[in-house]
Amino acid sequence: MQSKARRRGPRESGAAPVSGMAAAAAVLLLSLVMLDRHAPVLDVLKFTAFAVLGVGLPGLVLWRLIGAYRRNLVEDCAAAFAIGTSVQLVVYLAGASVGLQRWTWVWAPVVLLVAVLDRDVRERVWRRVEAPLRPVTAWLLAAASGVVLFAVLRTGPDRYAPPYTTPDPSYPDMAFHQALAASAKTDVPIVPLWVAGEPMKYHTFFHQLAAATSWGTGIDLTHLVYGLAWLPLMLACCALVFVLTQRFLVRPGREPHPAATWAGPLAVLVAGLGGALQPLHDQALGGVSMATAAYLSPSQNLGLMLGLLLVVVCVDLLRDQPPRTRWILAILLALAASGAKATVLPLVVCGFGLVFFVRLVAGRPARIAVVGGVVMMLVFVGSVIAIFGGESSGLQIKPGAVFIQLPPYADLRDGAGVDRAAQLLSAAATLTAWGLAVVGVLFLRRFWRDPATAFLAGLSIGAFVATVLTTQPGISQMYFYRTAVPFLVVLSCLGLAQLIERLEDRRAAVLVAVASAAGLIACLLAREAASGQAGVKLPFLWTIGALLAVALVVAVGWRSIRRTGRAPTAFFAAAVAACMVGATALPLAGLVSDQASLVVYGRTGMYGPTKAQADAARWLRVNSGRDDLVATNAHCIVQRGTVCDSRHFWIAALSERQVLVEGWAYTNRANRIAVTTGVNPSVLPFWDQRLLAANDAAFTAPSDRVIERLRQYGVRWLYADRRAGEISPALKQYVRLRHATADATVYEIR
Q1: How far is it, in rounded angstroms, from Cα 431 to Cα 722?
Q2: What is the pTM of this model?
């Protein structure tokens, strides 16, 4: 009697997709709750609708249509948002050049209409994913992303929003970004609204994106910049770190790597909060994690998202995976990244350069590396000419200067001038902290056969070299290394995955979990033990000793319980996991400890306006013409004697009007003067003292001649800030009083 053939393998079940969708729903719900904390409900709904319908869905159509991708929903959603953002930027730049800024959202419904009506497009786009995530992976990713988002929320919006209500807390760079976004709504090219007559050669694509979103939704720029824009960008960054890690562990046509379940979520957590061990109790050794700059540097947030997806696409191209139309996606992302953050494309070029060198030495074809490197270099050179106009933003070649600018040099320094011994000790401490946090890169082994590994390594090496060899105002050269940290973390996680695979036990993930938790606790305890200790040697010895003890105990425990794998392999695996997760100890402690938060995220300053001052600037926006010019007596967020910190941007940001002279920091001219004089560009004297004197005379010694001088400059409005200095009572005799609050008065020149 012949029996029926029995079906082999696991049964089809809807449980896995449902569980994965539940994890996604949890993250989305958390995101909406976070947005609702610092923006009106209606604005949250409009922003969410625009992000999904105006950016994400049309981006998904292009992602699947051009790239033929449909691996999993995490990848699809993050990539769709990045692609949609790139197209929105290109369309906005084109539309703004012909005065159609308010209509640049129209591209999205056109793409969606084609995706619905065209049968061929519909069949290629609206299909199921090929490899949905396992429930455990989905929930681990949701948890890791949630922790990172919560950390950014607590140290960003919860500190600085709602803005413009009290002077403290305030961060002047946020008003700077808002002022540039206000200019992007109408000006082509963007100009610094806080000082008239100056160009703005800068990576301004975030500001164009914010302007496009404001036109498309009607949301005020204050709510966009301070409360809304950060979250989808950061969420996409988390997802794309996971996607990049999975590119190495889950390959088409192959069995998934044993570490595929947990390595991606671990990379998200460590890239989001780690990147550097923090043994010192009262100082942070350079904030390099994604969370460090996700809120206070929106251009870095946008640039990193675009850079991550660009690297993912380049990895597929280097592996020569079809279709070749993916080159279109790479070029689109490169164009968008070129003006989002200046650090992205040079590092991608370095990545292709190392792949070319490795392939050349190995005698293998390097055509794709050459083509990719040339394309990225052409886009970069084009951006240097068209976007930056040859401006360097104060970047100079000064080897080792970063170790003077970063802690703990200031505490180690002895005497005047540069203390070379302190600089070397600071360098040793910083490099040790950075290196131990990604020590897994030493164990990549077989992953080196993949050109994608050399690509990430080249990118990371380029970032490290650029950080160490250059200097820039505000330690902005650190953005090279911050951009590379997610890629270093991915490589470190791959090294850990390689060690775990050599243990030959499917339960080896338990070793990673135990070592990670123990490493986190060990770093917290070692940091507390370092309280009150001077110097860096003892704190580092405490931390390194604690991590080695954790690795030894975990390895011995593993060998005594499981008896698989070699003891050195278990030791190194435990050490890598403990170091990587231990690097997140200080940022995590900062969520519950004011002292730790102060160390890792810094002190907030009293640099903002009162509510009355802000209301007066908003009144000016409503009641003045778009091309009207404003004069103000407010120039310094802090003034000590004759030294003025001129990072004063909030009048321009809130009024959305050109100011004759408000502040003058963060301009190309200030950066050029700083390079030649060596003076901090934020405290430089204004370069046109005659103009500044004529401006200020209107508020302190008004007369018909003084007001006529301002009229000749084109000034229509005067914003008199009482907190910035005394205002002459005679002013109202020469100009018309239009609006008055407790702290500011607005006049119109008759």
Answers
A1: 48
A2: 0.95
